Amino acid sequence: MSTETLAEIARAERGTSLWADAWLRLRRNKLALIGFAVLSLFVVIALLTPWIAPYSYQAQNLELGASPPSAQHWLGTDIFGRDLLTQILYGGRISLAVGFVATAVALLIGVTWGAIAGYAGGRVDAVMMRLVDILYALPFMIFIVLLTVVFGRNLLLLFLAIGAVEWLTMARIMRGQIQSLRQQEFVEAAISLGLSPATLIRRHLVPNALGPIIVYTTLTIPSVMLLEAFLSFLGLGVQPPQTSWGLLISYGAETMEEYPWLLVFPGLALTLTLFCLNFLGDGLRDALDVRGARD
Amino acid sequence: MPSALFSALPAVAIALLLSACGTGESNVVSGNRDGILHYGNGSEPQGLDPHVVTGIPENHIVRALFEGLAVKNPYTLEPEPGVARSWDISDDGRVITFHINPRARWSNGDAMSAHDYVWSWQRLLSPAMGAEYNYMLFPVKNARAFASGDITDFAEVGVKALDDLTLQVTLTERTPYFLQLMDHYSTFAVHRPTVEKFGGATNRFTRWTRVENMVSNGAFRLKEWLLNRRIVVEKSATYWDRDRVRLNGVVYYPTENVVSEERMFRVGQLHYTQSVPLDKIPVYRQMPDSPYVQAPYLGTYYFLLNTTRPPLDDVRVRRALSLAVDRDKLNDTVLMGTVVSAYSITPPDTLGYYPPKLFGHDAQRARELLAQAGYPGGAGWPGLELTYNTSEDHRKIAVALQQMWQDTLDIEVSLANQEWKVYLDSVTQMHFQVARRGWIGDYVDPNNFLDLFLTGGGNNNTGFADPRYDELILEQAPRAATRRERFAIFHAAETRLMQQMPIIPIYTYTSKHLIHPSVRGMPSNLMDSLNLKYVWLDRQWQADGGGG
Amino acid sequence: MALLQVEDLAVSFVTRNGINTAVDGVSFTVETGRITAIIGESGSGKSVACYSLLGLVPRPPGRIDGGRALFEGRDLLQMKETALRRIRGRDIAMIFQDPMTCLNPYMSIGRQLMEPLRYHHRVSRQAARARALELLAEVGIRDPAATIDNFPHQFSGGMRQRVMIAMALINEPRLLIADEPTTALDVTIQAQILKLIAELQRRRNIGVIFISHDLAVVADIADTIVVMQRGRVVERGEGEEIFQCARHPYTKKLLAAIPSGSKAPRTEPAEPLIRVRNLCTWFAPGRGAAPVKAVDDVSFDIQRGEVLGLVGESGSGKSTIGRSILRLVPVTSGKIDFDGIDLTALRGRELKRMRRRMQMIFQDPFASLNPRMTVYDTLAEPLLLHGIHSRKHVAQGVLRLMDDVGLARAFVRKYPHEFSGGQRQRIAIGRALATRPEFIVADEPVSALDVTIQAQILELLQALGREYGLTMLFVSHDLAVVRHLADRILVLYRGEVVERGSGDELFERPQQAYTRQLLQSIPGATRGF
Amino acid sequence: MAGRRRGRLSVWRFITLRLLQAIPVILVVITATFFLVRIAPGGPFDSEKPVTREVRAALEAQYRLDLPLHRQYLSYLGDLARGDLGPSFKYSGRSVNELIAAGFPVTAELGLYALLVALVVGGGAGIIAALKPHTAQDYLPMSAAMIGICMPSFLLGPLLVLVFGIHLDWLPVSGWGDISGDKVLPSITLGAAYAAYIARLGRAGMLEVLHQDYIRTARAKGLPQWQVVLKHGLRGGLLPVVAFLGPAFAGLLAGSFVVETIFQIPGLGRFYVQAAFNRDYTMILGTTVFLSVLIVLFNLLSDILAAWMNPRLRAQYGRH
């Protein structure tokens, strides 16, 4: 009955304790913290790009053309003589936004869909998952081409289109997780308390299924960034002179022999992001797995 | 046994790798020895029926398998005898009589006759056939009426077999380029018994072009056709001029990806590439004994301007945009000096025709024009969208132009790339403001370029409508008595066109190939036209390093 | 010379939070032909001590700090891994606690059986198979020829443990280490396995280390008993000595924990709270297949304030009855009347209201608590859900519940995995009591716990039952436990009630053969615990 | 014995049931695709040089596009029921059946090799990493796996060609079955991303399994570490990989386009993507139907394989 305990309880009441705890545990994981710090740095840089970029992202210097890294252009220039560092900075804005927002869309749809299907089971599950099968099988390109025609081109649409594609796998993973959790006694205990299915899914099932979802999410973000480049080719993505890491990499791949720096630096940016995401994802998974925190 | 499977995997993987060792003799080496040309053909042909197909890769193969009445000399592009040994042209230029070479044979040994042509041309023009290139024969009297179903009796069409070896063609009016058309695959003859045996004259779904069925009349015959892998032709034993054919065969590869094609060339898998990646050109240019071959090509790269919508309904805006483009700089930098700056639609030296040059790069004048149109210094500019179909090179040009307009005129232009069919749809529906376009001539004549911009023409796509222009092209030019007179009329028309600037010409195309130094008899020409009869491989050629 | 002589064994675990001494100066001996029992509760170091002998403690984090373990004169602790491997499974074999998880589910039992023989003695496949068949028959597997190629999941728990034993014995080891080999089994099966181990040991004249948390279990078979607490040996003696005159308080506690005695008969007037009539709960395994009749035509009443014991072995349908009443599984037919309300007819909101009045305590306190919710969240959830406390005052309610179930308040922010099994079961009880229910189904609430903890939890349940005026359905496979707690007992066999009566009635005058068998299976029954 | 036989029969029931369930899925896919492609802008006969109205009408008549849409749909379904996927719009005189028959074996072979590469490299890396978690032996292969995941094949393919095809001159730069060894680089390129996924899945699965009680049992038998891992750990550890294989293989077939283009491989992937670009209606439909049937089949196959590898699941399906 000490006042300490009461204070502790008062603290416990604030916010969802699982996430607060996860944050505490995450702070102890050095790799995850580095990942988080670097990603945050990327985001901050992306936000500040218009002020810190050394050059204008569209100003060309055709006479200069593609030049290797130099004192003026730290990472070199592209065939239009544009500063590559500036391109990467601006590309990061698009890529990070696409990566995070589209993945968030996919996460939202996929987790909800998979959780409902997995929890409901039976006919509802069958119908919902058959719908996923159908969407898997539809010709993706025709779908994207139609999107461009019906909605015109804008970034928001791009996010939705990518999210609409990527959620399918997410839903499958989630459903599998929920199905196995569904058999556990603590779910029965929650039912016997009289919890509604929605609350039960939200409070008891989803937090326990997050591990694989987080890992898959960290893998999805970079692949979404590359998918964005592909959609740009179909006319849905960003339009020049705007650019993204995915586009820079695909341009760079074409000229990897002549101008290797055009591939290496954007590739590094993406790889670095990937690694940081991965460290953060693994860290987050471990942090959310309260059991693993014993040792 | 899954565990057995898993333990077998490494062994399989190692076997896979071992089988790889040593890439052996390259295609170029073996080809030079055996007289086989390895040819990068760009893509898988959609078919081999001369009356069905429409593309360039198809053209290459069909012209190896078949031969027209007259063929182009690869050096001069002038017609020379093909299936027809000779021809007579009447004084008014309207009646042409072809004399079929009595030695001309189908590959099954059947003799060729004038009737083959009458039947084949009827096939091409039959409305049910839906041949997309049927307009190639429209200069022939009543051909257009027959094709559109207005007349149904083919006897009324100006094609007659006077006897087995004499074909008489009557034209509506003098058509100086008609003989050239005889080298276009749509006017080739097909073997009637074969076509009818496998489905009938106008059936598009037959198997007559398959290796086992195909009967053709060209210097080569079809030997192997593996989808998306290769098409092999071998020297024909029945071809009338077989003694002059020095190649024993050609292997066509569907080299869709230009970068991959270049790599195949580099390791000696190809003698000839269909194109060259832009960024690789400087490297190849610097090589001694360079395999890089570049030549002017009968085509123009330009931008369509939609003259029906503001701000492009104002000719001053259109001219300002055109004048602001520094074509030479574009060519020297982004395009690596691989093209020729163009200031009009017709390529220069189209059989002696030179288009007018009314303007050049003039930033000052461009700004003045824009100011006159009401946008001084870009003020009040409503914005403009430039549409292009997805392609690395189109993107580069669009990005460069966007910046040139920004720098010179201080105006905002946004870019929109579209997937090919969407882009085609946008262009035909005129759902664009500025759109990238290219035109490759079907035959060497200014008419082929200038009739694009006739009022309401299917390829106009700009809203450009000038009755005087129409009159010059449709009425006056055909009646011109001499080539010089005719060209003068074209020049006047083209001047009108470029004054009103419904298009922004950018450059004249060039053909760009990598050709192995051992390949001989393959001259560059304006049509990028290849006559395999002239080609041979130098067995003596030895490279110090192999492939090149 | 002793078969195995362990002297001053010390093992510790190096973790991020410091060094944990698990075994601290333990000595014991095992003689050929005798059974040495090591008794202690979870965490007493009894298993670690034995695993470290065979190098089965993962190193790191495990570390052997000192001591000797002479097996036939050679020090196991000094041996290289390869030398140790030749002893493992050949001279010293092991049986583990949970036969469900200790057999490879992807391999037929035949292959698993033959493996040690083929590996250590390079015996041909045919010979190994013949030997495996012999052993399977010896450990009491019916028709070994037909079942040798089956997979573990096709066997019941008892049968799997027999397979484990056969596997351990196939190389004719001289020392057998049995780590809680019967803890995961029903009492009836437990009795059989104990008998089997004792028999095999006598027949082969080998040494056995028998590790258990339950003195009663080893009472009949152990020759020597070593009692361990917190990594140290606190008492040792010949079997009889310990039972007659235990000196150490811990040993006394262990002895006292063995449930015994009947509950005093009830005096309150009978007034049924729950009437179950003709309850059938069948599971359809698939279209067309015959349904599994988990519960078949069962009728009984539970009086207000009564504890009704439900006894039966795994698969008898006893848990299904509890779950049927709570509407956790769909009822096939029959009627369940709760205080005049027909439970089978309830839907949605009404059902939710009803759930407040009846709760459940589950068998496995590891599985029944959401691993990602703190004690606070777990206990606050029902309070908030049923509006028992407002969000503002819920903390007080949670604290009071923790007091009630005997959990220190300081633990309020901890997660389930940070607690021992007994503490976890206290949380689960707290959760069940949170809604102030009238009726509780306790489904084997103590069978996963050490005996000492078992006694504490039973006591807690009894106390809370009185305090809250609970009516309880107590489900267990262990008659002794039920007798200790229940006013009346139903004996269930294959979905049907075979006998009913008060504890004393059943113990003294069992009518059915099955009930008698259950009685005889109670460990230490002959000793009269 | 009787029980076993009943189990067998039920497996067939299970397969039949799954196949029956697939029918409405495929029907919806066909219907949706049929109408989607027709809504998409641009048609099969659109080209840079537009055709005249008469020619277009003749072409549409030849391809039955002149019929009302619902009649086109019904006649397509009718043909499909007879196994006829119709004529290709792009490749005149060729049926879609013929094109698929030409492309599929190549793609299937490529997919199979890629899968082998993925299993050997990915599985191996995953197992090696799981044996000593949180050491260099874990971090190195896992970092490589991560790069593999984010390395798109349009980048990896050309890189491999440059190194092994051109600079080292060990392997051919393109082709399929023409020059010995020309299957190596495409298989590696296509398999790389999957190898990376398998490595991660395999590592997680192996780590999980190696903590199981029955691994301790195996060690108590005195088996050496490698036998413990290979004989007792592998099967359970690779189960998640097997579950991944079905969808992965279907994905390989649909996703082989880039690799087929880079290496000039005459496979189905190119047809599938080009059909969409060409608006080759019948070809889009045909490949989509074919692929969705494959997806259904491979998902079923991987379920069956997983069940076969896992006796407990085997029993579950037996009961279904």
Task: Walk me through the structure.
The complex is a heterotetramer of chains A (about 300), B (about 550), C (about 525) and D (about 325). With about 300 residues, chain A is mostly helical. Chain A has a domain at about 90-285: Orthogonal Bundle (MetI-like fold). Helices cover about 75% and strands about 0% of the residues of chain A. Chain A has 11 helices and no strands. Mean pLDDT of chain A is about 85; it is low at about 10-15. Chain B is an alpha+beta fold and about 550 residues long. The model of chain B is unreliable at about 1-20 and about 545-548 (pLDDT under 50). With about 325 residues, chain D is mainly α. Chain D has a single domain (about 10-315), classed as MetI-like fold (Orthogonal Bundle). Helix content of chain D is about 75%, strand content about 0%. The two termini of chain D are about 20 Å apart. Chains in contact: A-B, A-C, A-D, B-D, C-D. At the B-D interface, α1, α8 and α14 of B face α2, α4, α6, α9 and α12 of D.
| Largest beta-sheet details of chain D | none
Q: What is the total domain count of chain D?
A: 1
CATH topology of chain D: MetI-like fold
| Total DSSP E strands of chain C | 20
The proportion of residues in beta strands of chain D is under 5%
Distance between the termini of chain C: 36 Å
Major protein interface: B-D, 67 and 76 residues
The CATH architecture category of chain D equals Orthogonal Bundle
In terms of structural class, how would the helical and strand content of chain C be classed? alpha/beta
Structural class of chain D: mainly alpha
- Count of discrete domains of chain C: 4
Number of helices of chain C: 20
Rounded mean pLDDT of chain C is 85
Number of strands of chain D: 0
Low-confidence stretches of chain D: 1-9
Going by CATH, what is the homologous superfamily of chain D? MetI-like
